[in-house]
Amino acid sequence: MHVYDYALIRVVPRVERGEFVNVGVVLSCRSGKFLEARIELDEARLRALDAHVDLDAVRAHLAAFAAICAGGEDAGPIGQLPARERFRWLTAPRSTMIQTSPVHGGRCDAHERMLEHLLDTMVRMR
C-alpha cells in the first residue's frame, strides 16, 4: 500500500461568485514516485455558471497542470522542481480561475486505479 495525497482541480469562472466546477484531480505519491493530473472538462457545466467563460484560456491553464506534473523543460521553471515540490506548488491556495481543493490523503495499491476512482466520484457526472 502507498500513501498518497490528492486535490481536486476546479474552474471558478467568476471568482467573485465563488461557484466552481470540479474538472480534474492531481495525485501525488512520494513512495511510488508518482505525480499526475487528469482533466475532464465538462464545457456545458462550466457554461451554466458563466455563459461567456473563455474556454480557450481555461483549456490552456488546465494543460499547464498536466505539463507541470510531467515535468521537464516544456513545463517551465516549475517543471524543473522535484515532483513533491511541483505538487505543493500546484495545490497552493490561489484566487484565480483555476483552483484546487484542500489536499486530502489516503492509501492505495494502484495509483492509476485510485485516480480513476477519484474522477468517477468527484468529477464525472453520472
At a glance:
The chain is an alpha+beta fold and 126 residues long. The protein has helices spanning 43-49, 55-70, 83-90, 111-122, and strands spanning 2-11, 21-29, 34-39, 98-100, 104-108. The chain has one domain.
Descriptive account of the structure:
With 126 residues, the chain is α+β, with helices and mostly antiparallel strands. It has one domain (2-102). It contains four helices and five strands; from the N terminus they run E-E-E-H-H-H-E-E-H. It has helices at residues 43-49, 55-70, 83-90, 111-122; strands spanning 2-11, 21-29, 34-39, 98-100, 104-108. Strand 2 and strand 3 (34-39) form a beta hairpin. The radius of gyration is 14 Å and the shape is globular.
Structural class: alpha+beta
Largest sheet: 5 strands, antiparallel
Q: Uncertain runs with pLDDT below 50, 5 residues or more?
A: none
Rg result: 14 Å
Number of strands: 5
Number of domains: 1
| SSE sequence, one letter per element | EEEHHHEEH
For the record, give the distance between the C-alpha atoms at the N and C termini, rounded to a whole number.
Answer: 29 Å
What fraction strand? 25-35%
Give the overall pLDDT as a whole number: 94
Which percent bin holds the helix content?
25-40%
Q: Please, how many helices? A: 4
